[in-house]
Amino acid sequence: MRTDPLLKRAAAVTPGGVNTSIRRLPDPLVFTGARGQTIIDADGKEYIDFHLAFGCQVLGHCDEYVDRRVLEAMRSIDLIGAGATELEVQAAEKLLEHVAYADQVLFCLTGSEATHTALRFARSATGRRKIVKFQGCYHGWHDAVLANVITPPEMVGRVSAMSSGMVPDSLSHTLVCEFNDVMGLERAFQEHGDDIAAVILEPIPHNVGCLLPTTSFLNAARLLCDRHGSVLIFDEVVTGFRHSLNGFGKIAGVEPDLTAFGKALGNGYPVAAVCGRASVMAESATAGGPAFFAGTYNGHPIGMAAMIATIERLESGEVYEHIFALGERMRAGLKWAAEDIPLPTFSTGFGSLFVLYFLQGPVSDYRDLLANDAARFVRFQQGMTQDGFFMLPINLKRSQVSAAHTQADVDRAVEAAARVLRSVSDQVATEVVG
Ligand SMILES: Cc1ncc(COP(=O)(O)O)c(C=O)c1O
Fold this sequence. Notes:
The chain is α/β, with parallel strands linked by helices. It is built from 14 helices and 14 strands.
């Protein structure tokens, strides 16, 4: 048992023992290894990983091809911190080759930096203050958007800050609309259209599982931004490179002005990007524009090499074929596994990503998700994790597969899900009787 002493040491030196708020687990774990589709905890227990660091490892953990390219880069160069490196040029060309609606790209390290930059460029380009975000979408930890992701029912419909320590004014220019609500967005533009710098959205709000966008909603967002001279930002930190090599805009047939990428872009290595139309990217101080953009580690060779290698691995399309087929198999399997239990459930997702809600589907916006039975959702994901199938035991959190997962992994997970669901359902029966 190495977990207990490590947990004690972690809690002594790090507040709560973890380095990100939502890495706190109901049953705390310490991990010591990862490879392919597997992660290992400090007691040597192996898990099939369906969390994948919030979806980062689209190829699986420690992908050999990506790691080799990272090591090669490390042998020849490290951070220079002036001018450009050949790897940055190659990485930018590679990304722009695939994301056709982006003319230029800037690299940073995290999704939060990418969305922060996109909003700054939008405000700089328009000279306006307000931004529109949607209930259920997460865009990182910076103050202007840290609101209304998983929101208690009594706060839905109001701007609801997610942290203390934020200046109250930091959200005074943030408007929150309901996802998929065309009329709500139209109202926001009627009231504030002259002052809306940007509309930012996750094309699929995966931070609350999976709310699929309607075509009319995405079209309306594009149209209203065009009509009012606002910047449309797609936050593709989760969807980008996991669902498509070409950006979700290509799938949706709606092209954003700016896009933020992260997570799967580097298969888990720290790299993120903000890219888009040359006219808005020209705001960047790197091009002599008025909007400051900087970061000591931006364009770090490790991230650049990881990104180029990850995209190369995705280019043949075989990875997408494999992970989409597994995602579909898992969604169907979970639906089947839940059929015999007397609880409402709804299996949904997109591509390689899946979620089993404890509610009567379908779902279209966050208000629908308020019906999700949070306690049972968490109990289910906790039960799966205890059985060796790691799914983040936090309400509304999605799961996903990687190129390293196999059909057998999915089938074994579905069998486990049937067992775990029966036990969740039996607990419900006991509660009712008790
Ligand atoms: C859609 C979305 N945008 C932005 C972010 C922030 O990215 P990071 O945690 O890398 O700062 C996240 C992180 O989960 C995300 O899911």
